[in-house]
């Protein structure tokens, strides 16, 4: 809930900070609140026209541990070298309102044949992404694989000893969507065909982290390479405000275009589950029902 007992300038600061994914509460605006000064400093330094990528270096960082929050601009991110990123952990705080369309694909090792199937997996994934690019524009992909041929053919890192035969992140960096819309619409996908990990999305204002593919997970050095010579900022999910906005209908129709079947009632189940977890977000849930009604069987 936005503060209503503060000055217009404080409310503006709140809105700017919230749009950048910072978890704020009324306490942050009380007299003596340390975080208030930090927010004002960010607004003074960058204003509203320079979006900031916020991140933490430890995925277990608590929401309230503000002193561990870090920031970087897209321009600064663009110039970072692969060796810099490979030696750090960067978990991006996914903005609360608008995000770039992003996906995480993980294919785990099941048998010796798993590695042999990687060429089929990555070809299927990128073919689907090519189809989605008609709506979302160009995309950046990067990751690692246990298949040496795929590594050389697609320009991602060869990582022989791993429990995943393929780990791939895809970000469409010239468009942005409502984070809530993406959370709902992504469930339209046939996950068995698209192989997308739904665990990297969170509804509403709940904090969501997404690791940058060129960085590691701490002690596990499972960093990847970005393909096609693209720069690190193209893998950021925080918009730089130059992206075109994708509507909910465009989002759902793009996902439907790569499926072989009608959307089924799993969406209905998804929203009912969300409703049970978020009983006070009636207006948001009702809006989703209105949007999705024409797609439900």
Tally of domains: 2
SSE pattern: HHEEHHEEHHEHEEHHEEEHHH
**Helices and strands: which structural class?**
alpha+beta
Counted by DSSP, the helix tally is 12
Strand portion: 15-25%
First and last CA, distance: 34 Å
Q: Gyration radius, to the nearest Å?
A: 20 Å
Q: Biggest sheet, in brief? A: 6 strands, mixed
Description:
This protein is an alpha+beta fold and 297 residues long. It has 2 domains: 1-49, no CATH class; 73-261, no CATH class. It is built from 12 helices and 10 strands. Strands 4, 5, 6, 7, 9 and 10 form a 6-stranded mixed β-sheet that branches. It starts with 7 loop residues before the first helix and ends in a 5-residue tail after the last helix.
Search tags:
single chain, 297 residues, alpha+beta, 2 domains, six-stranded mixed sheet, four-stranded antiparallel sheet, 12 helices, 36% helix, 18% strand, globular
SSE layout and pairing:
Blueprint: H1 8-19, H2 34-46, E1 52-56, E2 70-73, H3 74-78, H4 82-86, E3 91-93, E4 98-108, H5 113-116, H6 118-136, E5 139-145, H7 148-154, E6 157-158, E7 164-178, H8 179-185, H9 191-194, E8 209-211, E9 225-226, E10 244-245, H10 248-256, H11 266-277, H12 282-292
Parallel strand pairs: 5-6, 7-10
Antiparallel strand pairs: 1-2, 1-3, 3-8, 4-7, 5-7, 5-9
